[in-house]
Amino acid sequence: MKNLISASYKGFASDNWSGVSPEVLQAIVDVNAGHHPAYGENDPFMDLATQKFREVFGDKSRVFFVYNGTGANVLALQQLVRSWEGVVTPHSSHLNEDEAGAPEKFSGSKLLTVYCEDGKLKPAQIEPFIQSFGFQHHSQAKLVSISQVTELGTLYSLSEIKALADFAHSNNMYLHMDGARIANAAAALGCSFKEMTTDCGVDVISFGGTKNGLMFGEAVVFTDEKLAEGFQYNRKQGMQLASKMRYIIAQFVTYLENDLWKYNALNANQMARLLGEKLSDLPGISLSRPVEANGVFAIIPKDVIPKLQKKYFFHVWDESKNEVRLMCSFDTNLSDVEGFVSAAAKLMNGH
Ligand SMILES: Cc1ncc(COP(=O)(O)O)c(C=O)c1O
After folding, report:
1. CA–CA–CA angle 3, 314, 218 (5° rounding)
2. Is the pLDDT of residue 323 over 90?
3. Which of 148, 239, 250, 334 is the most buried if burial means most Cβ atoms within 10 Å?
4. Could you give the number of structural domains in the chain?
5. Would 1 be classed as within a structural domain?
6. What is the pTM of this model?
7. What distance in Å separates the CA atoms of residue 294 and residue 35, rounded to the nearest whole number?
């Protein structure tokens, strides 16, 4: 199989195209010896993880591990929303655009999407759904779901998150955060996970790590364990209960220890900032969105895109605008950034 992979190749397609942090890979090897309880039951690793996550998210929190981000999002929703209740979320959310209808299929509830130019939902945009409360013909909004970092590379400030949580709670709704890139957000804002979630009033978090150096696995974190009642059954029904749970736990514990999450995310963010600066210096290329975390959105001439993709693969975000998305990872380095920019410069000059 080795000949199917080029060890030197790196692109900017997505932060989940990267490999695994060496520390995380080592942790997987370390827990590989011997036999160990399955499913996280009567498992000292699970106790350790619960303790670790409580240190990070607060004493009342409760963590559950699942296989992937879609599973985490869908189960979080399913736990808190009944089929006739709705989920208010930006149109651009992963939940709406990239989960093949899984949220609707498994929770049975309707996604109430809102167009958000910058990918960020504002309390005023939830207001119209409140008007439907008590009207039996309409889905009843029960949960607000935001992504931090958003799919458009933007960040909510702590006060924006708190405003959404306050608005949701004062209308008897919950706030969910899709944190596939939550580490990049916390690193960029210079805050702790708790400050960005529990302290702002977020009720449930899909805490991701795969995009920042983990091999696989995701954590669903309830900031108040009262909301988690029965979640273990939901997870099993949702086919997201891993029997060899210890391999997920080992990754997360290592990731949270010694701030590995922060070290990785700061690098990805810094490389994105640099890539954005260098690209925007090239005549004919401009940034279409601010670089706030580890994503760069740029407008590149139509004929240059496929040629550049051959050297460094990346995705076209909006074909009608020639807008592309370039994601930086924990392992993106200076020479990747410089190589990309110099390839772009040459192509822009017709070479
Ligand atoms: C914002 C966001 N949420 C969730 C996910 C989780 O996806 P997966 O089910 O592939 O782990 C992703 C991955 O692309 C994402 O970008």
Report:
1. 80
2. yes
3. 148
4. 2
5. no
6. 0.97
7. 39
Distance CA(109)–CA(89), nearest Å, equals 13
pLDDT at residue number 1: 83
CB 217 within 8 A of CB 189: no
**Angle (CA) 186 223 256, round 5°:** 45
Assess if residue 158 is contained within a domain. Answer: yes
Would you state the pLDDT for residue 351?
78
Q: Which of 14, 91, 98 maximizes ligand 1 atoms within 8 Å of its Cβ, making it the mutation to test the pocket? A: 98
pLDDT digits (tens, 9 = 90+) for 264-291: 999 999 999 999 999 999 999 999 999 9
Per-residue pLDDT of 36-86, as tens digits, reads: 999 999 999 999 999 999 999 999 999 999 999 999 999 999 999 999 999
Q: Is the pLDDT of residue 202 over 90?
A: yes
Distance between Cα 65 and ligand 1 center (Å): 15
CATH number at residue 311: 3.90.1150.10
First to last CA, the chain: 35
Q: Whose C-alpha lies nearest to ligand 1, atom 6?
A: 69
Distance 180 CA to ligand 1 centre (A): 6
Residues 265 and 290 both lie in one domain: yes
Q: Which atom of ligand 1 is nearest to the CA of 70?
A: 9
